[in-house]
Amino acid sequence: MKRQLDSIETLRGIAAILVLLHHTTRIFVKDYNTEFLYGFFNPGYLGVDVFFVLSGFIIFYIHKSDIGKPDKLKPFVLKRVIRVYPVYWIIALTLIPIYLAVPSFGEPHYSNPVYLIKSLLLIPQELQPILGVAWSLTHEMFFYLVFALLILIKPKYTFPVVVSWMLITFVMLFINPFEEFLLINFIFSEYNIEFLLGCSVAYIFSKRKISGSLPLTIGIISFFTFWVLNEYFSFEISRIVMGGFPAALMILGCANLDFTRKPNISPIFKYLGSASYSIYLTHPIFLAASVKIVGPLDLFNLLGIFTIPVIALLAIVAGCIFHSIIEKPILNYCRKRFLPSRKTTHHETKAVI
Hints:
Structural class: mainly alpha
Helix content: 55-70%
């Protein structure tokens, strides 16, 4: 059984909250021209980059021994589908009738059947899915597809393809003659590099090539250095540099801590990590509903400067409630119904945002 990685779990929860605070900042600027903490959390979108590196780390860490073994393909695919789709569908299928009944709540294309099907299946398209934050899940599912091919086909055939894929992706960071082609840009997206970074960190960690907490310290310092440079000095930096590489260092450092010291992490932080997927999916809906009542209830006069942090905190609580009463029971049912009866590792079922 793999060691339980509580620091990794905590990092996942922090990443989800960073994204939530990013959206909280943006939505209150847009609707009320009020900037939370002078826009400090504007770069919170980098939490998504942390998620991508985390996904690469966890998938490789758990499934590296499955590579080149076709008999492992079915359980791998089932686990990934169960982890991503049921909870996402519950939320998306709740939104669709609302948008159809009250078109002013959404966009005109929300009634397009092709758009809706692509949204539900997380198929890449020009427009964001009906649940906007699910754009990241389309990249997650593509990464799972690539890893599934690594499981299905012998490494001697897939390795050259993966290397070529990564080389083209790197080249397209600087020279992209296919800017108008959605599918090509998706297949060779820079986000794939972050998944690869996660896989690389898992390999380094499994070989114990770099130990100690120094990577964590360097990762945190570089992450927030780029954060401040971007937000307050308008320093344009690639997301891979701003979020991907620091995340890789932080994840390596956290994994080393879990392996060598077993840090005593509060159950609250571990719970937030477990609830991160629910927090990530539900917070845009909660925030959108909340800003509509701030004005009529005159919350700014009632709560003053605490209005925005209170709304953000309630969004986290709402995501946690959704996790406990909906996500966990749904996942438990699907695993019992569709997966072979055997013990799984702590992180084997959590390799997603």
